[in-house]
Amino acid sequence: MTAASSDIRDKGLADKGRARIQWAYSEMPVLQILEARFARERPLAGVRLSGCLHITTETANLARVLTAGGAQLLLCASNPLSTQDDVAAALVQHFGVPTYAIRGEDSRRYYQHIHRALDHQPQITLDDGADLVSELHQSRTDLLAQVVGGTEETTTGVIRLRAMAAEGALRFPLIAVNDALTKHLFDNRYGTGQSTLDGIIRATNILLASKVFTVVGYGWCGRGIARRAQGHGARVIITEVDPLRALEAAMDGFAVMPLQEAAACSDFMVTATGDKHVIDKAHFEAMKDGCILANSGHFNVEINLPALEALAVDKRRPRPSVDEYFFQDGRRIRLLAEGRLVNLAAAEGHPAAVMDMSFANQALCVAHLWAHQGEFANQVHGVPREIDEEVARLKLKALDLSIDRLTEEQSTYLASWREGT
């Protein structure tokens, strides 16, 4: 399969996309190091990779590393609204990577593109959200025997894959890149925090200072969103179902209350849970006039869109990425980015500097899977500690930061139980 067989919006956007890819690359020093290493060592020579990923500038730089390592890579979109069309064009025209992704594609075309990625007969899969793996297990089971393993980048995808493993349905091993410390401590917290606020501000141009801003879910993504909103001067509320996370949010200084109570007083509500219909009919009925809803989770299921549509008597689009729903009683509810990933649908996604670490994990885990094929059970595995630490060391080096090392005496002390007070 060649790049000529791709399905993208406009090849004429390729030069613009290449310039933006190069801009992001300047913020990704770890990937630069890995690209040189992969080009020298060729750890993926001839390996067929299919990636169902957000087609962004950062993803394009991951593609550079994988292809430098010898991989035969094909990409499709992991969300209909996350594709950057100029990047897709550059991947095809300048980097020779077959790409099937068009911003705004409908569900039919989205799944057609996933099946084109599966037609590539991947030996390793890369996923954002597990749609590729799910479709492979449900409708292309003839391809499963040749799959060595896969990687998953998102919280939502890891949840799905663990559910598959718990049912005994997972037919090849997956590495949960999302769970790497150098991923979720930085990408989820700082990347999601900044990019979610970026999407909300671009979409609305509404001042956040003094507004009541509710974050639904206090995982690593929710923590990042809450801190960034607080930094803008918003009064932040956290809603949770996990008592430990709720307690943490309270001790971090945020108001904590049930979602139904928060709905009645919030100017903004942002979901970051990975679950379905978290904001539901009863919450819409309680919301104040003008409440703005956004989703930072991977799939557009966290806000019950059918219920919202059913309650509305009219709908308008006053700005790009904003749909305004009018209720019978005169209230308006404003939904951003059709309830999809607001940071990618209304902005550009995570900054390159945090994706540098996430995608370094991705590249190293793909190489690790290939080098150690047959050694993993068909379960969801964590990123090997040595890979996590290597990424951290490379990032520190790129930032020109040095750290201390344990002395031999200190190492011996930590390894012994005999010496006490």
Automatic annotation (TrEMBL):
The pathway is: Amino-acid biosynthesis; L-homocysteine biosynthesis; L-homocysteine from S-adenosyl-L-homocysteine: step 1/1
Question: Which top class of enzyme applies to this chain?
Answer: hydrolase
CDD domains to which the protein is assigned, alphabetical: SAHH (cd00401)
List residues binding NAD(+).
154-156, 188, 217-224, 240, 296-298, 343, 350
Question: What Enzyme Commission number(s) appear in the record?
Answer: 3.13.2.1
The alphabetized list of GO BP terms reads: L-homocysteine biosynthetic process; one-carbon metabolic process; S-adenosylmethionine cycle
Q: Where in the cell is it found?
A: Cytoplasm
Looking at the keywords, is NAD present? yes
Q: Which InterPro entries match?
A: Adenosylhomocyst_ase-like_sf, Adenosylhomocysteinase-like, Ado_hCys_hydrolase_NAD-bd, NAD(P)-bd_dom_sf, S-Ado-L-homoCys_hydrolase_CS
Q: Which family does it belong to?
A: Belongs to the adenosylhomocysteinase family.
Query: NCBIfam families from the entry?
Result: ahcY (TIGR00936), PRK05476.2-3 (NF004005)
Write the protein's name.
Adenosylhomocysteinase
